[in-house]
């Protein structure tokens, strides 16, 4: 975890923009000696930060590296609580597992677990999620809403809208959402979202939202079995995307939408979600555990449940399914 001194130091440089900060000011802000500040700056240099130091003016950051350590994510972050506490690992089996443990141990809301590589990343129905090193965003976010348990799945849809908006902000691409948890670009999957619950019999203790985003993979990085169904933001734009910058955008969008959701309910999110939805108005097949349901996707209910109108006019409500769109 990031030390409190390092957090204050990064926040000071973030707020300063292009202004220089003196060693004395940094020491007072971080609550440590000027010698300690110098040591922290040297550590940041080793991580890839470039500083400009001017006598009698102080320091400013002129370049931040393109990694996803706590320091890189914190530099430039503009949220109140989302992403303010970061647990970084180079390699893990699953960020979800670590997030569950941290939530049980009392982690604050908005805590993020992020890794450069996952060896056992997974999506819905325990499907494997390919998470190669230094290419994507593999993270889990801890939320602690005061909600009844049946509303927990709505957080998947809130998150999907936030990720779509963040991708738009950073890349200019126009992603679409495939119910309930996939984000596609031109029909190819770029993001998966996995929502898991920690709860007692009558209350939610924490919701763990796992997000996997294919950011800088090249086509040759994808396994053969998903080569024609998956893509990355870099493939679609032809550019290398700042993963830390995209994470900051996700945190900013998610914090805003999450607070809107807690204050005004699901309806404002529902309207946004349907605006990004890939399947609305199209003929689809919903493959559920009890059988297939075919018909036209009408939208989602106030609870985030998919509505399908069958050929005979009957409207079916689908709570969990794999969706196939009839082109």
Kindly describe this structure.
The protein is α+β, with helices and mostly antiparallel strands. It has three domains: 4-63, Arc Repressor Mutant, subunit A, CATH 1.10.10.10; 70-276, Bira Bifunctional Protein, Domain 2 (BirA Bifunctional Protein, domain 2), CATH 3.30.930.10; 283-325, SH3 type barrels. It is 32% helix and 27% strand. The protein is elongated and about 80 Å long.
Work out the helicity level: 25-40%
Largest sheet report: 7 strands, mixed
Residue windows where pLDDT falls under 50 for at least 5 positions: none
Taken from the alpha-carbon principal axes, the silhouette is elongated
Strand order of the largest sheet: 3-4-5-9-8-7-6
CATH topological fold name of the largest domain = BirA Bifunctional Protein, domain 2
Strand content: 25-35%
């Amino acid at each position: 975890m990031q030390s409190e001194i390092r957090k204050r130091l990064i926040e000071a440089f973030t707020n300063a923009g292009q202004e220089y900060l003196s060693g004395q000011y940094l020491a007072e802000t971080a609550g440590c000696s000027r010698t300690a500040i110098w040591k922290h700056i040297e550590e940041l240099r080793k991580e890839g930060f470039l500083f400009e130091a001017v006598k009698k003016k102080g320091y400013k950051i002129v370049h931040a590296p393109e990694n996803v350590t706590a320091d890189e994510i914190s530099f430039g972050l503009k949220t109140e609580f989302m992403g303010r506490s970061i647990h970084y690992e180079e390699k893990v089996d699953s960020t979800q597992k670590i997030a569950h443990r941290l939530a049980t141990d009392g982690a604050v809301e908005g805590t993020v677990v992020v890794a450069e590589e996952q060896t056992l990343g997974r999506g819905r129905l325990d499907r494997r999620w390919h998470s190669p090193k230094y290419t994507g965003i593999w993270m889990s976010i801890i939320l602690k809403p005061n909600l009844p348990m049946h509303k927990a799945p709505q957080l998947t849809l809130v998150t999907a809208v936030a990720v779509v908006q963040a991708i738009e902000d950073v890349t200019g691409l126009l992603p679409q959402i495939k119910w309930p948890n996939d984000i596609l670009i031109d029909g190819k999957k770029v993001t998966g979202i996995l929502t898991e619950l920690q709860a007692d019999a009558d209350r939610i203790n924490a919701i763990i939202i796992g997000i996997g985003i294919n950011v800088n993979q090249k086509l040759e990085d994808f396994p053969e079995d998903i080569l024609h169904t998956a893509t990355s933001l870099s493939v679609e734009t032809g550019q290398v995307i700042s993963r830390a910058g995209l994470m900051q955008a996700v945190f900013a969008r998610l914090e805003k939408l999450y607070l809107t959701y807690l204050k005004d309910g699901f309806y404002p999110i529902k309207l946004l979600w349907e605006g990004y939805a890939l399947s609305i108005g199209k003929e689809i097949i919903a493959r559920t555990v009890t059988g297939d349901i075919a018909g036209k996707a009408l939208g989602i209910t106030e609870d985030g449940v998919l509505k399908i109108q069958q050929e005979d006019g009957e409207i079916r409500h689908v709570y969990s399914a794999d969706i196939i769109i009839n082109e």
